[in-house]
Predict the structure.
Amino acid sequence: MLTLRGRGPRRGNSLSNLGLIKDGAVLVRDGVIVAVGAQTQVEALPEARAAEKLDLGGRVALPGFVDSHTHLIHAASRAEEYELKIEGASYEEIARKGGGILNSVKKLRAATAEVLKKRAMAALKLFAAYGTTTVEAKSGYGLSIASEMKILGLHKELAAEQPLEVVSTFLGAHVVPAEFRKKADGAEKYIALLIDKMMPEVAEKKLAEFCDVFCDRGAFTRGQSKRILEAGKQYGLAPRLHAEQLTRTGAAQLAVEMGAASCDHLEQVNKSDIRALGKSETVATLLPGCDFHLGLKKYAPARELIEAGAIVALATDYNPGTSPTLSMPMILSLACTQLRMTAAEAIVAATINAAYALRREAQIGSLEVGKLADIGVFEVADYREIPYYFGVSHCWMTVKRGRVIHGNK
Ligand code: NIG
Ligand code: FE
């Protein structure tokens, strides 16, 4: 059993600290862990004697994965663009021709809430089947008041109607939508709509906890991102950023300056960005699924970030354009082979550090007394086999708040 007990978030050497207990057990009451330790000790507790016992048969148990960056709600795949990319077109070329995010926006606007919900429900079932128990979800394929609210409203419904926790992020600033690109000062007019119309509604209806901006070439500038995130703060939305993915814009240092919860991607960071992240509380969330799917060779400099002391997390970035996967085990495999992270570092990055990125380190991310009984159980002999086997999931059971949500008892 990997408890990941102890102080989080983890940096540097402590990123390898899994708190491993051979033959461990947890005692759960009302979905919360009330005891954790060696099986013999936990089973000797008076309360344990009356408890229902779930024997995991010597398999590997660890905290459920916290997927801290997804674009959960979208209408369809972009398999047609995948083919264009294989033939040599770049992600940005496709976007400039009206494909990319705008392609997904068109599809989402045409889709009913019912259809979107069905697709997301199916995805959430799969997330659970791969050992994930908490999912962050971003809007950003609506880009109009009605469509953004449709997405955020679905986050709320999904959170209430299925077992995984869904953490909602407002990403109205994904790109400037097509109808505003035709106008003079279109970007400014769209930003005004975001700040004056969308944010008040998001805040009033409590539809999101975080505000995110895609700060990059073809999306929003550093200056625009700062204004949007500052406005978000006024509405109680904590900032996070898509940063330094395609080009270096200074978004990572903006995230640090603003005390953002995380900045994500980071393929293009320079030495001074790495130093700034190393000294900050802003989580450096790496998304190797994007580089893998886009066939790019330049992954984020994980080792330098770890050496600088950054709080490194890992997430799927589940989305139809750059990372159509919901498998955290696959992300761990990529982290090991492409980011040169060890299996232990990758597991810490996908659990306790990711929980910190969602400001939920007091509730999830480790198996400790007082935390939710969110557990992934893997049919492997050694935790290192979780990333070692790639493209398959050996997740045998997933437990959310003490309830089995995937696998058989
Ligand atoms: O995280 N970079 C911006 N957003 C997504 C891609 C969205 C899309 O292509 O649909 C990302 O990579
Ligand atoms: Fe993303």
About this structure: The domain at 12-63+365-406 is CATH 2.30.40.10 (Urease, subunit C; domain 1). The longest helix spans residues 186-204. The chain has a mean pLDDT of 97.
